[in-house]
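Title: Prediction job returns without error message
Component: structure pipeline
Severity: low
Priority: P3
Assignee: unassigned

Description:
Job completed but the reporter wants confirmation the result is attached to the right record. Sequence as submitted:
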Amino acid sequence: MYHEQIDPVMTMHWETLIESAAFRIRRSGRFLVSELLLPHRVISTSACNGGQSDTIRYLVNHQSCEGSGHHERAACLISMGLERYHSSVCEELGLPAELTATMGTAANMSYATIRQCGDDTISVAAVVTAGVQGNASCAGDPTTWTETPAALSTTSPVGTINIQVLLSCPVTQGALSRAVVTMTEAKTAALQQLAVRSRYSLDLATGTTTDQFCVAAPLQGDPPRRYTSTGTKLGEYLGVAVRDATLEALRWHNGLEASYTRGLFHVLGRYGVKEDQFLAEMAAYLSEKDLELLKKNRNAVMFEPLVSAAAYALSSVLDRCRYGAFPASAANEALRQQAASLAASLAGRLDQWPEFHASLPDVDVEQSKQLILAAIALGWSRKWS
């Protein structure tokens, strides 16, 4: 018989989200617990009991602090240290610390999203909490933090993607590790769909700096599967479950969804077009009358579909310029062409594209923000002229 059944603290009100023969997922307040009802092999980022283990019974995700201004809580966590904090979480839940893998986040557990994908023989369940607005990053971004024995940051950047993956079938140790790769690719695929930008560079995000995970597969049953890559059905189900759960979690926690991503600030924010600065900066490009009209109709302009399409084309060209896809002699003209399309789309006068192209300033790629603002001003002023 598997471990003696241990219920989390019974004074807490527990909501059962999913229950099967292999696992049970429950939520209460700041905590979400996946109880493994059969022996599983787990690989996780848990500060205690992390790595690969055949003895983990509980996978815990929890809200460890509020998203901003929770300085007293942050100081408490730092003073306790990772091991003591892990024990305190388990004690609060009434769970044995040595049988538990934990993840922490500022996200509310009410926003946790579960997606299941599979067929009659195999399936995958993914449980995700996700926030990216303050801490999205791209692998390889610059950083100033180096870990030392005493180095625990006193600031906690807001934004974490925490993922639990529960496989229905046994897998080899190598396949369990490969499942982490597929899971990570699926998470990044969700961020690509939403064009989430890094907060630390001009690149699109691949995750956040504080992402965590737990992946579990039963130890008993059919012969272990050897492959969990994206080229297998198990890998496909894993990718779909994690991608879709991440998308849904971001929709609830950050309000991010496909329709939102058409906004001009979302598209071009990484190139300096920021909502809090936009109207003040546009004053240098528009007459007082046109600026006042823009202020009253900003959202209609910022979320206009064809304007967004032109903005995405422009941002893509800017990316290619940074990556060296074009010779330097062609980069400025490539950018100017896309800026002319942005202006013509905003004005609703695509037939006058040559005139817009001729009217825009000839600026260097390094001054792309000025060209973007000039294109927006040109299109807006010509829309009603």
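Comment from assignee: result matches the submitted record. The first strand starts at residue 15 and ends at 19.
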